[in-house]
Please model this.
Amino acid sequence: MSAQQPRAQVITQHRFGGPDVLEIEERPCPAPAPGEVLVRVRAAGVNPADWLARSGAVPRYGEPPFTAGQDVSGEVVETGAGVTRFRPGDEVFGRVDGGGHATYVTAPAGRFAAKPHGLDHVHAAAAPTAALLAWQALVETARVGPGSRVLIDAAAGGAGHVAVQLAKAEGAYVVGAARAEDHGFVRELGADALVDDTDTDFTETVHGLDAALDLAGGDHGPRALDTLHPGGLLLCAVPADLGLAPEDAEARGMRCAVVEADAPDERLPRVAALLADQRIRLHVAATPPFTDPARAHELGETGRARGGIVLVPAG
Model:
């Protein structure tokens, strides 16, 4: 970088609380350590983990002050010693372990992959956590394929709408659970059947499934057990709000696995390939400006966003 380094804008907070605790601060641009890259962030995804961390419900980053944010897309500005897979100017997207809600981010190079051509930064920033979670749950853990029957809860949300498409790409029969007003959207994603997870007891009509992906938490996991055949697999993506213990599922002849969006260096290139050939298309519900993070959090916490929410820095 030049001697006159740019300044970084950072979304931070000094106490737990509602969206109003989020602040914008200006700081020196970070420098990459060995094995890291410095990325200028062109778009940053906002996920449930971010508002759960902000509120203190899941203190992922310890006590404030901290900067949340995991999903980013942008350009490599500088590489640290030993980095050979990227060079300045490369367009990348990835998942960092916090600190992603900033205009410049440093992280290990393995947390990024080349941004697929034809995918803009906004849609790339909506992808990493959602797609990595869906991949681990459906491909690696449940091993869905032709003939598999799968329930996707919260099917219209950021991770849910990706999971529906991935399950279909793997050949599965997909039951999408979502509010009635979102059924048209989920059907367009490829869902074979639709159920309302807010107004009716879908466990009375949906049975004999091989796997169910719980993206909502609360009582959704225990309810989803009733849709599985004996030996069926409940995939829990909200471990802080699991609603049951794995042994509870086992006592009923089912299986339970907690899944997380982890190991981007192993999985993200595979996800990038799915995005590149458009087997998965990202829907973005809103793109608030980077300077208005409260609006992004407020929208996310309504639980009514179709697809992802992405913050967009100016310039």
